[in-house]
Amino acid sequence: MNRILGIALLFALGMYSSHAQKMNSIAFIPEGYVLSETYYGDLNKDGQEDCMLIIKGTNAANVVINRFDQEVDRNRRGIIVLFKNENTYELADKNYDCFYSENEDGGVYYAPELDITTERSNLIIHFAHGRYGYWRYIFRLQESAFKLIGYDASSNHGPRIDRETSINFLTRKKLTRINTNQDAEGGDEVFEETWVKFKQDQLFKLSEIEHFEDFDMGITY
């Protein structure tokens, strides 16, 4: 009986700790915003699961009628990065309005879908555009801020990859791969690769990017 009570107590404490931690993360959401999505991953290599909150504005003026006579919420979204410290969180970085609404009009296709992942303690902001490809921004914690160290993009025509781009902002090198086999059906592309060096005075900070859809990485050669 004591063992069962002990297990129940540990479970209850775990549930309480998880709830308290969640409430602690919500406390970082500013007034005028709500939580949209939550992602986890170790971003500072301390073995703890850090937290990335996608938040969304609540301005009623941005709830509009689209071209299909549907009411859609066009409020922009942002990101809050929190480092886990035992059972609490501390603010690591933030940008409240850098992402467009998930309800943007994609024209003949849907608007690119936003996803957040972690990879080798890097923060990855990924935009997937189905048959048209994807692009992603790779940020790393440097000098107490998340800075852009890499960019990858793929321009597709259905299953066929037409062009791939990879930029390393640490080495200041850009790789472009262009498919020369226009009859490719996906997987049988033939790429021509070009490497170039570029100039870059400093790394971009996540907190300073106004809108990702208009973001100019300012590469000069």
From TrEMBL:
Key words of the record: Signal
Superkingdom of source: Bacteria
Position of the signal peptide: 1-20
Keyword set includes Signal: yes
Protein name: VCBS repeat-containing protein
Species the sequence originates in: Cellulophaga algicola (strain DSM 14237 / IC166 / ACAM 630)
